[in-house]
Amino acid sequence: MEPLQPVRADPHWGQVSRRGHWIYSAAVIAIAAFLLLLVIRIKLQGTEIPRPLITTVAVGFFTAILIGTYFLVRALREYSESEERFQQMATNIHEIFWMIDAPSKRALYVNPAYEAITGRSCSSLFEYPMSYEEVIHPGDRDHVLSKLDEATTTGQFNERFRIVGTHGEVRWVHVRGFRYGIQ
User: Fold this and answer.
1) Are residues 83 and 39 in the same domain?
2) Does residue 1 belong to any structural domain of this protein?
């Protein structure tokens, strides 16, 4: 099984940030920026900055860092827990479960069932992105690939076809696909 990409590379990272944690971080940053601008304005006026204001600004920045860090750590923990649940689910599904990038047809994720069902390694799918075409029975390949091309625009794929294992055994599979995106 191939691990998912790190959080920064994940295009769905925005889902975690939509949970509201970013509002708190933005508010804290705004307060810190306001305090900084206040100090700059006083300094530009040539006025000596009162010690209580310097203390307030320092405490404000320290608080902003602490609160911002708290919400970032919380969001990362939630993301990590969500990824762990996904990995458990995908590992325990005894059917091929995979995600592909529709335009390039490059695999983004494939579960271990791919190896058990096709006899090919998951890593081979990542090393040779179009290798899944070899799995499709030659008599079904043109039709299936045509439907897969069509699915890149319709967002739907629902086909029953044959695959050929590494030892020449033929198996029937039913493959369903759909467009996924965070709305």
Assistant:
1) yes
2) no
Beta-ladder partners of 170: 164
Q: How many CB atoms lie within 10 A of CB 135?
A: 22
**0.85 exceeded by pTM:** no
> Structurally, how many domains does the chain consist of?
2
**Per-10-residue mean pLDDT, the chain, length 183:** 44 50 71 80 84 82 81 87 90 85 82 89 89 93 93 87 92 85 50
Q: Please, where are the H alpha helices in the chain?
A: 13-17, 21-44, 51-92, 113-118, 122-127, 132-135, 138-154
Listed residues 60, 91, 122: the one ending a domain: 91
Q: Which residues pair with 106 in a beta bridge?
A: 101
Residue given tokens 């889902």 in the structure block: 15
Residue 43 is part of which domain span? 7-91
